[in-house]
Amino acid sequence: MTRPLLDIDDLYKSYGSEDVLEGVDLEMDRGDVTVLIGPSGSGKSTLLRCVNQLTDIDSGTVALDGTDVTRPEADVNELRKQVGMVFQDFNLFAHLTALGNVTLGPRKVLGMDADEARERGREHLEQVGLLDQADSYPAELSGGQQQRVGIARALAMDPELLLFDEPTSALDPELVGEVVDVMRDLADRGITMLVVSHEMGFARSAASDIVFLDDGEIVEHGPPEQLFETPEADRTREFLGRLQTEHEGTP
Amino acid sequence: MTPTLLQAADWLFVADNLGLLLRGTAVTVALTAASILLGFVVGFPAGALEVYGSGLPKRAVERAGVVLRGTPLLVIIMMLYFVVSVSDSAFATATAALGLRSAAYQTQIFRGALQSVDEGQLEAARAVAMSRFEAIRHVVVPQALRRSVPGFQNEFTIVLKDTSIAIVIGIGELLTTGQNLYEGGRSTAALEIFLAVSLIYFVLTFATNRSLDRLSDRYAVPEGTA
Amino acid sequence: MGSVVSVRPLTVGLALFWLWLSGRLANDFLLVGSVGVGRGEPFVPVAPFAAAADSAAALAASLGPVGEPVLWLAGGFEFAAEAIGYLPLLAGGIWTTVLLTTVSVCLGFALALPLSLLRVYGGRTARWAALSYTELIRGTPLLAQLFVLYFATSLTQVLRGVPGVGVGFVPAQAFWVAVISFSLNSAAYQSEYLRAAFDSVDSGQLTAARAVGLSKLEGIRYVVVPQGLRLALPSWTNELVYLVKYSSLASFITVQELFGRTSTLASETYQYTDLFVLAAVLYLALVVTASALMDRVESRTATVGVGHTRQ
User: Fold this and answer.
1) Which of B128, B143, B221 is the closest to A139 by Cβ?
2) Which residue numbers delimit the ABC transporter domain (chain A) (predicted)?
3) What is the ipTM of this complex?
4) CATH class held by domain A6-249
5) pLDDT in tens, A54-109
6) Inter-chain contact B78–C272, Cβ cutoff 8 Å?
7) Do C265 and C98 form a contact (C-beta atoms < 8 A)?
8) What is the CATH number of domain C91-301?
9) pTM for the complete prediction?
């Protein structure tokens, strides 16, 4: 049996008296595309942030490729080289061009020389369809373009696993498509992705697993067709029902 | 005694001594440059310490800032001159006084600029595996430096003008030169001398502001309409 | 923030300072010769502090190297003794500094308000003239401006001729030259603050004022100015602090304000260290008072939704 790429075991996290994650178990194999859904405040983003240690955990373990990354002596920067992250509000480095954003990590962290970083950066920009905007600054790009640069920036580190924290929820509806297309393309190329998103089109067509998180625990977990068509838990059914009416409500 | 009119003879006197005034101007410019530099070298790390530091060093920097910003420059100069005896050179004393006080203000400028950079920038840098120091150095600082230009511009002209206060310890800067011309030379030319001195200061501050505007435009991050 | 009035050492220190200053001035101007102590004579005797300093120094000497902290204590007592001796002589200087600052800020404001309104609402020529004035003043050193007025104009002679100047409570002409110079200077800076504030009042406010039938002037007077003044309040803290400190420049034209008094005393007694440290402490007391006072004014006049309201 091969060991899972990501193995989260009995994870607890609270902010003060607020319990956010209460014993989460989750495994992902290489090439998996797991989509986390759940009501706001259910702990989805916190779970994501615990994986690359932007948030400290209280107890439990997070293991990447068999290595426990939550041990106190573990090097978070080593971990983060292998786990890329795409943010809800992009967080592009405002003082750098699109290419500058993509090459900063490889140059400063991986020690790549500038020419090589630029060349590879261009390839990554091409993957997200933005080679022509390589010299544009974030403020000159649309939201959808900024998010695609954000994805290229994460890809440039050659990560084992990519985390997406609600990548389309800050976008105008007409710009969601271009970002989802890029994500679907990555999924097709076998990149392991853990995605927090309510973008149902993506979840149905590209996800290998759907995880429904509510009140800090995993309520239900399964392949998309099973979870969407024949959900077992009442809470899941209720949530999916609400999600559907919300979506029909939007023009 | 009463300077009745702007007399041609008095302007001639000013013109004759233009060389002296320009030498004074050179001292003023040198004093400004040295003080701003000292202020930056001390003020920038101090600003970073106020944002990212903690404990005793941070408190010490804050206290020193309150004292330096709350005391007249004149008093600071005299303290360094008589109390600490910074140096035998009046120029060094004036540089230390102007520079340390400027450091206290530059600390405020950089602190504000560093704090104004969005938290998400630091987080995104951490997410591409940069250490905290690398993230601050490569992502936060370059943005903060750009944002501190207007405050820095203001500080630059304040220091330039306040070099005139160094007259109290007798440095041959611009205003002192004017004062000497008036007292040791031709007292009827007072208005002409001090107007000429003021004009030179004005040209200096104006030129400084314009060049810093240029610099700021040159390094500005483009903002499209997209 | 300002409402938390815990008794902190700073608050106590400031209260003592102002209590002492008003007591001192009342004594020197009103009570002297009857019930008060003599002018220049301290309220608190110097002798006990000097004695304490001596015995602490003696103790430190007997303790040898371990006596270092005691030696500092001796230094503290010595400074206290010196300060108590000098404070009565500096009180008049502090008073002059306070007077110089407040009068200049007020006169400066009276000039700045029309100046800033011209900048915002004036015609082309008026705008240009107001802009030139502020840029010329802000582009040259205050000390140079002071020298122009004092050495290069006949302002001093004119003021000397004004009846009442230099008589009784009224300070002499050099003081008034400084007041005029500082007011002209402060007007330029204050008009910049005010212009920025008026500019940031939403233009819809004036339109709305016109819509309810006010004339343009009335709209400015009753709608824009009240909002703008509140927005400009934080800048006044800066301006007040600025003038407290820069009023020390008046010493260059013989005004015996705090710095002037201090350096005169220092050159008589050669106690440069103690005197300038004392002056720094006194200026800090004035500056901290000025900003505390402005904080109070700000929270008093705060209107929900105008400027930043404090929580």
Assistant:
1) B221
2) 6-240
3) 0.89
4) alpha beta
5) 888 999 999 999 889 888 888 888 889 999 999 999 999 999 999 999 999 999 99
6) yes
7) no
8) 1.10.3720.10
9) 0.84
